Known about the structure:
54% of the residues lie in helices and 9% in strands. It contains 14 helices and 9 strands.
Amino acid sequence: MGATDExxxxxxxxxxxxxxxxxxxxxxxxxxxxxxDDLAFWALSRYEDVQEAFRDFATYSxxxxxxxxxxxxxxxxxxxxxLDPPEHTAMRKLVNRVFTTRRVAEMEAETRRIITxxxxxxxxxxxxxxxxxxxxxxxxxxxxxxxxxxxxDRPMLRVYADQILVREDGSMELPPxxxxxxxxxxxxxxxxxxxxxxxxxxxxxxxLLGLELEGRPxxxxxxxxxxxxxxxxxxxxxTKMVANAVELLSRHPDQRAKLxxxxxxxxxxVEEVLRFHNSTQYMHRTLTRDVELHGRTLRAGDSVLx
Length: 306
């Protein structure tokens, strides 16, 4: 897109994914409150506006979905990310009781075993497709281990998780393959819940079944919502983050050399990759009231991308 071209921001256009940052610059400079008439959303791109919107959950609500394609699908499973405080706060406290820092530390050995298994195959082969052979498959195995999914079932869940990510260029609609992936994953966990309620199985799913929310056990729908959230939140984002890190370090050999010389810089490297080229490029919110911003009136009920 040249500087004289019409400013168009479509987060579903594959061409944007190659390098969205020039479009973001133009949004900040030319249209800080941008309206996309075709897809019916506003986009806020200036740092202060985005930060304020994230803080003001009473005005910018998550309850109507955090992505455009999920907008308005209130009949879906209850998930923490589509709740506003105080409901969100109560659900988050519940999860924090079982997904603790100690639990993450206890998973380190298993996580290393999973990842080194993939790396060993790459070393043996002498080359790889970074995403297909490494960053794509390992996050789902780690999530499955956290949830307590038997190893024999993990390859099947990886296939379903990959289906969820299928999209068509420029389209906001979920294609049939993605919908089938969602259905298959939910079907798997729904079919597994009776066994777990009888005390069989380990992992986070079994732990959640033993918790209470406001004095009552979690419903099957709430537990399934957690399962789906873990897969959505941890699979694609980790795949992208690790791939982005390798790609960025290849473009900046001086930074790679520093990391090789001092591996203790790895945590800072991860944080910098997340800042510099984030796996998640926007979040969707729905306005609960009219807002005046940059000479525009954003109406209650409108979609806003941050």
